[in-house]
Design brief:
- The protein is an alpha/beta fold.
- It has one domain: 3-Layer(aba) Sandwich (Rossmann fold).
- Helices cover 42% and strands 15% of the residues.
- Strands 3-2-1-4-5-6-7 form a seven-stranded parallel sheet, with helices on both faces.
- The N and C termini lie far apart (38 Å).
- Bound molecules: nicotinamide-adenine-dinucleotide.
- The site of nicotinamide-adenine-dinucleotide has 27 residues, from helix 1.
């Protein structure tokens, strides 16, 4: 096996129908992985791209904000014939409002999807992988708001900052048990998640002039880091939050 070869491995990718999740699912398939796409919406386009790479695609339909969903997703993936090698916790939502007006519903929705479901998916995945004696890789999709405060996104910042801490905690507990836990912190990426920001001419210009690379990221810009953290090349990398941000955090 070479450093970046994922042949013979399955990658479970949540939120695989659009944006960063779709790009990562297809990128891991190009590196040789079979894919389990987990999502609440149809993932037909991702499936077509993955199978065009010659890899298997298994769809698991799940609303990740539902209680008890971690165990169910992992059980369904196993029943469908997947092995537990790579888990990419990508699914996420964002709610924008001033902190003074922010509602409890917007707090709970974001924390449930972006943090609680990630923990319980990691737990169910690692429990089964460790019991099976399989080396495994977990990649959490964090954010610049794992490092910074942001504005008008209190539940998102809380969830993504919490996710950075959780990534390190899980790495501490599982590094010696054959499970690597790391995160990618994307910069500003052109996806559904950022439509509102890009539509605001003033915010868009402010963001753009702060990015050293001089452009927003495209979902494909996340693939290299994902392949690295999924592959044998990162076997001694634990608990890191890797920014892929066009240099934003260096400013
Ligand atoms: P996106 O809206 O295109 O993708 C989000 C995905 O999550 C979709 O597939 C959606 O169906 C899925 N999802 C959301 N809630 C779900 C639920 N309850 N159950 C199942 N699936 C659910 O946006 P994106 O930008 O590709 O976001 C992917 C990840 O990247 C998110 O975690 C987001 O916070 C993170 N991120 C995005 C940016 C950016 O600039 N776009 C920056 C940093 C981090």
């Amino acid at each position: 096996m070479t450093l970046f070869d994922l042949s013979g491995r399955f990658a479970i990718v949540t939120g695989a129908n659009t944006g960063i999740g779709r790009a990562i699912a297809v990128g891991l398939a190009r590196a040789g992985a079979d894919i389990v796409g987990v999502g609440r919406s149809p993932m037909g386009e991702t499936e077509a791209d993955v199978t065009a790479c010659g890899q298997k695609f298994i769809a698991v339909t799940a609303d990740l904000s539902a209680p008890g969903i971690g165990d169910k997703v992992i059980a369904e993936a196993l029943d469908a014939g997947a092995s537990l090698d790579i888990l990419v916790n990508n699914a996420g939502i964002i709610r924008r409002a001033d902190a003074l007006e922010f509602t409890e519903a917007d707090w709970d929705a974001v924390l449930d999807t972006n943090l609680k479901s990630v923990f319980f998916l990691c737990q169910a995945f690692a429990k089964a992988a460790i019991a099976a004696g399989r080396p495994a890789k977990i990649i959490n999709i964090a954010s610049l708001l794992s490092f910074q405060g942001g504005i008008r996104v209190p539940s998102y910042t809380a969830a993504k900052s919490g996710l950075a801490g959780l990534t390190k905690l899980l790495a501490n507990e599982w590094a010696a048990r054959g499970v690597n836990v790391n995160a990618i912190a994307p910069g500003y990426v052109e996806t559904n998640n950022t439509v509102a920001l890009r539509a605001d001419a003033e915010r868009n210009a402010d963001i753009l002039k702060r990015i050293p690379a001089g452009r927003w990221a495209r979902p494909d810009d996340m693939v290299g880091a994902a392949v690295f953290l999924a592959a044998p090349a990162s076997d001694y990398v634990h608990g890191t939050i890797l920014p892929v941000d066009g240099g934003w955090l260096a400013r």
